[in-house]
Amino acid sequence: MEQFILNIIHRPEMVPEYAEKVTGHGQAEDIGRKALLTESLDIFKVQQECAHKNGLKTTIEMTYASLFNDEAVELAKEHHEQYGDEIGLTLLGLPCKEFREKYKTKDFCIWMFSMEDKKAIVQDVFEKFHERFGFYPESTGSYYMDAELTNYIKEQYPSVKCAVATCWEEGPKAYHTCNNSWYTFMDGGPWAPWIPSKQNTHVPAASEEEDSGIVAIPHLSRDLIACYDGNGSNFGTHPQNVLRGMIYENGEYPYLYNLIDQFRYQAKFNNGYAYNMMFVGPGWMNKMGRWEAPYELLKKSYEDGCAYYGKLKKEGKLLDMTMSGFADYYRQKKSYTEPECALWRDILYGSKKQVFWYCDPWMRACVNMDQGGAVVDLRPYAAKLNWPVGIGTPHVQDASYPFLIQEKYRSGYFTHYAGEGTIRSAKLLYQGEEADLCLCRTKAHVSQEGKDRILTLDPVEIEFEGLTVKLQTVLAFTEGTGAIRIERRVLQMSDPDAEVEIDEYLVACYGTTEYPEDMSSLTLWAEKAGMERKALPYEYKCREYTLAEADRVGCTLSPIHTKVSLTCEGRDREGYMKEGYAFSPMFTLGYKGRLKEKERFVTWLSLEKAD
Questions:
Q1: Which is nearest to 216 in space by CA: 196, 190, 236?
Q2: pLDDT in tens, 473-491
Q3: In terms of pTM, does the model score above 0.85?
């Protein structure tokens, strides 16, 4: 039986983000303004009422500011007793007079503080929580929680078993839509619940030894196409995200319900389990209105969203849980190596675009059927990259997990008069003509065979002058291997005796933003049994090397402790590697071979830790 799990999380944020400026009506900033505190608490009450009247329990994530408010504390206790709501503690909502007087800063993102301050803040808020409630929380969270912070919390407060730990694809795309002033970079993490490793929050733990001790959930459930292509803050199952994206007409928002339903659909690819969450603060429902929407519409959208969840629950199609309750469920439901999969289609723009997302402790990958099944995003989780974040570290704001392939920040398929973008695809060649599978739109379906998640694409027809080739692509992700198997099958040719060349290629680099990194520490290499390994240190010289019957071609990326390689099973195979140049600072790995009708060409893309 398929299960659709829901977490509704409310926070009585006494000083909501942005809201002081709105509520203040042009007055000088005063985060202790009584009108602000009163309105914030009133909105929290409305949000709680929306959930409860639809039979839904919530997790109340108390903010530091709310712990100084007697009414907020009593409300939490009352709703815990009456409705079974969980009382947790969020590390959002730090700003208040008490906080600013002690820490002398306007910083509010816990992961950006120095480790010394992180520890002091955690101790302050957790002990204040214990003072008010007499116990320590079982859940916490923020927009992002770095591994060092998570490990410290679990060590000091072992009762914590669940945390909001990242905001899916909250990176340069979100930054650019916030007037280049929202310095929260955390691309590259899971979009659905996972158990974070002790080494890096984004990376799922592969074993009990790597287990950080918590179950992590994302900050909002996002549209896995619209959010990736654009600003994720407009495309989530939080109703006011949909209003901010202007995705409504005449006070109605069918997209919201379609988005919830598409998350329900993912149970088909995840052993009968699907997940959804809303994480809401009072700043979204300001009496002055938000996102060009009046308060009445803000309130109605939240009431309607809760009503839809309530309807699903009454129909037996949804199970609402608290955060800690979900953590227990998740640990019983999922194994460490079991991947999270999503076959996602465009439900917003009518493009019929379809992508497949895959995430496990070795990689996060995205396959785009609009580009013939090309891999358009690839994060090498196998490296288990230690990436400290915050003041005093090399990454004060940038918590993103580095990519090898990222079509939004490194172009993707050829779009310019020179240079290349990162992508994993293939070309067919026949009598001087070349066709890239990136130009072949198709669709796919997902199946599971043992430990393999198999993505089978509909065949495409490639027309050369004098020859038509019907080709099918099948990708297999084998659990626990860090490898993607890509098989090209020639189903039919208009001339059964013809032969085509195939070029399987990977164009890659590394980084977290649009801007290039220094590639001079990379090394390309090729291997063949019985001969010396050929190494090519990256020097921006545009060099190429080809090795007939190569066993493996690869690249070692020391800055991100990653090895990426290709191996091949095919006729007349030749492995090759290409060095990039300053205008196009990429590297290319590939295999060339030949295909006739009914033949196949198979390659494996593998990820390993470099040291």
A1: 196
A2: 999 999 999 999 999 999 9
A3: yes
